[in-house]
Amino acid sequence: MNRIVKPIDAIVRSMLLLGITLSLSIIGGCSLYQYGPSSLYRSDVRTVHVPIVRNETFRHDLGPRLSLAIVTEIESRTPFKVVSDPGADSTLLVVLTSENKNVLSETSSDDPRALDATLTARADWVSRQGEKLFQNTVAPNSGSVISFSQDSRLVPEAGQSIDTAMQATIEKLAQRIVSQMELRW
């Protein structure tokens, strides 16, 4: 019986050693690996300060509306927490540079039939230490702010107004700006 116990003890010991080795390699090998939606974003940033968007257009209400849309997008899509403290881990600075309406087609009496409402903005995301956090895929390591332009179509004959089209444009622009906060592969 003693001869049978020794091989079983050796098998149990080798299985235990194999299990411990495998566990340590899994834990050690995956310690820096991130998974899930949070892997799309920087792990060194937890808070974002979003000051009111500076507005260089003649429509005074666009800056606060875009600010609110950006804050809503960050809170709903990213793991970051928006704070009012300028000493946050990072700051997202946005400047609204232009607002435009382009007539696409007219009726026979020169009334606009279809229009495009367009907004253009510049955005810069910087860390507390001044490091640029946006990763521009077109010009990597450019170190400059990124320009965004977004438009929405409106048809007044269908009951749409410039305000509804502008709100749709603001929401799409906020989505595009927040999408740039994702890490590039």
Structure description:
- The chain has 185 residues and is of the alpha/beta class.
- The protein folds into two domains: 1-33; 38-179, Double Stranded RNA Binding Domain.
- It is built from three helices and six strands, in the order αββαββββα.
- The chain has helices at 2-29, 62-77, 162-179; strands at 47-49, 54-55, 81-83, 90-106, 112-127, 146-154.
- The longest helix has 28 residues, at 2-29.
- The chain starts with a helix and ends in a 6-residue tail after the last helix.
- The relative contact order is 0.15.
- The model has no long low-confidence stretch (mean pLDDT 84).
Produce the secondary structure layout:
Layout (H helix, E strand, L loop, with lengths): L1 H28 L17 E3 L4 E2 L6 H16 L3 E3 L6 E17 L5 E16 L18 E9 L7 H18 L6
Parallel strand pairs: 1-3, 1-4, 2-4
Antiparallel strand pairs: 4-5, 5-6
Helix pairs in contact: 2-3
